[in-house]
Known about the structure:
Shape: globular
Distance between the termini: 33 Å
Strand order of the largest sheet: 1-2-4-3-5-8
Number of domains: 1
Strand content: 15-25%
Radius of gyration: 17 Å
Number of strands: 8
Order of helices and strands: HHEEHEEHEEEEH
Largest sheet: 6 strands, antiparallel
Helix content: 25-40%
Amino acid sequence: RVQAEQAEGFAAIETLRQEFEEHSGGRQSVGERPGSRSKKQAPRKIASLTEASGNAIFIGRSGRENDQVTFDIGGAEDTWLHARGVPGSHVLVRWLRPADDEDEGAVETAAALAAHYSQSRTAGLVEVDVTRRKNVRKIKGAGPGMVTYRNERTIAVRPEDEASLRAANRLG
């Protein structure tokens, strides 16, 4: 329900509907006749951005995309972010030059996006958890995008969308 409220456009709602059907055992939709087949829509491309230092930022906009961002795109040493305690997008920073020290500017930019793509997007400040991707685990038997994580630190940021981050020269 929360993701449906945040969905932008028909394609996003259709993706959520398909995920629900897959996870619920393929129950038919309201208004769908028995025996009719629903059309499979081509998967959406994962949102990817480049922040000012050249690091790639990936954003999952549904449970399935969250799984892709976290477990298919993310490497063990990449940085994973999620708004603390609320439903929202998984955001991943793939470092241009992997190192032990993270670029705090890139982390803050990604955290602002994680806050924007969460249920707390209208709050003044949002707490966002930050950890390495290797510390994130899928919850066995749970739906798409459901994870647990450890060794996180929490930062407070203002939610910002891509347009405002570009205007502030924080995105390429």
